[in-house]
């Protein structure tokens, strides 16, 4: 088996499994006042400190959530509501068109139900938003912008965006900027304080932590309107009993991801480069999507279009050979839709449909790359014969 | 290893075939896939997404196009232990089946979209893609039997259980399509209850799922409403055989030859007998009604014949089936050029242009053609649309 879909989810680190298992065997609600509660609370706060350290943030800026989707929704909707409440003119949302659906659909929802107008920020052919594009959009009317949301690195094509430069522009106009850093964390240097961001989404299961836990890193001056009301945990921003075992395992994985990042870039990035070379050698007409330059791209991402092939044919044929990858785009009822990311980058629909994402991770090996190198030529020939349906 | 009589043989691994099982989410296709896997074939399940905007949940008697159906198919594949994918054939289905269905009604004909889907989607778009991807056969839950003759040629026969037989909707398959078809349900005289019991035994959750009956792409079963939405309304006259106006209608496509209900004619017939739709003329948007006897059809001509094997030469005696669940009629049939001429021994009723006539020789499917014109009793005018 060659598992090459780490951008979907990556195996938990043994250290995280161990930390989680230990927590699962002890009792205590982190909100309780007795000894068991204090023990749980201590574990949560130590995890908060560890996660903050791994992300270049202050502990008080970390809001634990149920994962990336929740963090994105909390940031986009919560900041929109809060900003509009402070000034009813602020109904404009600036967003990149290459966002993950957790952001994209939240923005659409605000437009459909909360009177928001959306300005889609233009992207270049690699899927990158340029600071001047953000400036231009804000300058159309700086007073009516509720927030801007631009991902740190794209989950499909792996392009890394110039977040610090974008944040500088937003800061100039005092517009809050949120960034989905789910794919960036662990692969590029993510330093919240240095970035100048106002809010940032991270999630555990992409870095070797468990499913169902994430965080919104949020500067202290922002009080988004909560999505969930209840016990008032997490600065009143996110009610709900804290999942101590998941939080502890998340922090364990985050600490290791930050520590091992340079090694990850070197080793996994090296394997990725070999995979790209192997695919290009076997299929010269394959198009590498996203920024080809190493500094502009996630080290673990290789995303191709194979002209004349249907992505789902490629996926089926590789799956049958024990190679697990993704068409990279969202599914509706199991049907792969043409990638909105590639379409926004200017790809035609055939190129968008014939795409495949290989994403590597901490368990990837040279044997995985060799498996792809051996299979991809015949698989592409066969899928091309099956054509576009 | 057990195998089905007629299962296509493949070149690799002895008799082990790479089989693509079309899984609608219903009980029949789930059991068919399970039987194919149990027979030792290398089976992959595929659910066809045929609607561009699928509904979340199944309502009424629809059978295949909701997200719930897709999930049911996936769960069946999990239990059988085979890989499962969803293939988006919505564009092809819309072009080849739905739009054809609408165009046929607009032209005053009565199409059968299930035949069309088997001809153009399941055993064309799907089969071609499957073969290109390296599969040897497509497996479905149809009740029909494939018989392999000594010379290696294949014949399509009625299912062992005549009550469940679905060979009519497969009558459009040619020899090449048959060569790559697998119908694991058709060979055993199994009742639907037994299939459900088998599904239960195999742990398939779809065991108790209700059967689907209606046209899958018409969500609420309201064919007239579906057509009205797409074709608009066009007021026209309802007349008797003499041309006397009896009433009005909102679109001739809303009627089927042989239809009795829903004519909304104010005045009863002089003889008090019920009246039936005899003819639909899209050209002047007129619906002609009359007594049941006037529906008697003595002969028909049909076009676009497709043969499950060698086309017949010269006139021959066959039985004919005119509807999915219709009975058999004795006929003589002859191929004249590209036109099939069929004459009934006894008159039949409710024959509409656009329907398929499927010819049988005993239990064997000989071929099918689309009815273009009928000849009524008493030398009545030929109805050609």
Automatic annotation (TrEMBL), chain A:
Domain Aminotransferase class V span(s) in chain numbering: 3-371
Keywords in alphabetical order: Iron, Iron-sulfur, Metal-binding, Pyridoxal phosphate, Transferase
Entry EC number(s): 2.8.1.7
Cofactor(s) recorded in Swiss-Prot or TrEMBL: pyridoxal 5'-phosphate
Family matches, as Pfam families: Aminotran_5
Top-tier EC class: transferase
Reaction(s) catalysed by this chain's protein: (sulfur carrier)-H + L-cysteine = (sulfur carrier)-SH + L-alanine
Stated family: Belongs to the class-V pyridoxal-phosphate-dependent aminotransferase family. NifS/IscS subfamily.
Stated name of the protein: cysteine desulfurase
Species assigned in the record: Streptantibioticus rubrisoli
Automatic annotation (TrEMBL), chain B:
Enzyme class: transferase
CDD domains to which the protein is assigned, alphabetical: MnmA_TRMU-like (cd01998)
Single GO MF descriptor: tRNA-uridine 2-sulfurtransferase activity
EC number from the UniProt entry: 2.8.1.13
Subcellular location: Cytoplasm
Pfam families from the UniProt entry: tRNA_Me_trans, tRNA_Me_trans_C, tRNA_Me_trans_M
Residue ranges of the region described as Interaction with tRNA: 164-166
Keyword set, alphabetical order: ATP-binding, Cytoplasm, Disulfide bond, Nucleotide-binding, RNA-binding, Transferase, tRNA processing, tRNA-binding
Catalytic activity, as annotated: S-sulfanyl-L-cysteinyl-[protein] + uridine(34) in tRNA + AH2 + ATP = 2-thiouridine(34) in tRNA + L-cysteinyl-[protein] + A + AMP + diphosphate + H(+)
Residues that coordinate or bind ATP: 22-29, 48, 141
InterPro entries: MnmA-like, MnmA-like_C, MnmA-like_central, MnmA-like_central_sf, Rossmann-like_a/b/a_fold
Active site: 117, 216
Predominant localisation class: cytoplasm
Stretches assigned to the tRNA-specific 2-thiouridylase MnmA-like C-terminal domain: 299-371
Record-annotated site: Interaction with tRNA: 142, 355
Domain tRNA-specific 2-thiouridylase MnmA-like central: 225-290
Job description of the protein: Catalyzes the 2-thiolation of uridine at the wobble position (U34) of tRNA, leading to the formation of s(2)U34.
Protein family: Belongs to the MnmA/TRMU family.
Protein name according to UniProt: tRNA-specific 2-thiouridylase MnmA
Species in which this protein is naturally found: Streptantibioticus rubrisoli
